[in-house]
Amino acid sequence: MIYALDKVAPGTTNDDTLLYGVEVKFYNMEVEVDSHLETCLKGLYIIGDGSGITHSLSHASASGVHAARCILAQ
Ligand SMILES: Cc1cc2nc3c(=O)[nH]c(=O)nc-3n(C[C@H](O)[C@H](O)[C@H](O)COP(=O)(O)OP(=O)(O)OC[C@H]3O[C@@H](n4cnc5c(N)ncnc54)[C@H](O)[C@@H]3O)c2cc1C
How far apart are CA 26 and CA 33, in angstroms? Predict the structure, then answer.
């Protein structure tokens, strides 16, 4: 991958390039929620990566906004 990247971004394989390591991610098991992100326990909403549904900063943030809008719309 590094050699392939060097073709796109020459210099990537330079001797002084510092590699920290491979990124590994583990995700939570998915919690069962409805389209409002509400669980079977009425009033309990699960947002962000703890839900096992979102896997990124923007997705996690948007899930909070979504749940808040659903609560406000009730
Ligand atoms: C190595 C790595 C790299 C990543 N790179 C990217 C990237 O480049 N772009 C991207 O979009 N996403 C990236 N992500 C994913 C992103 O970080 C998460 O999707 C996002 O942070 C999830 O947000 P969240 O608010 O759901 O959870 P978190 O950001 O994990 O927030 C949960 C918070 O709850 C706190 N907490 C936990 N238990 C308790 C408790 N009992 N009481 C009180 N507080 C508690 C924690 O301390 C934490 O602050 C990366 C993740 C990792 C691990």
Answer: 20
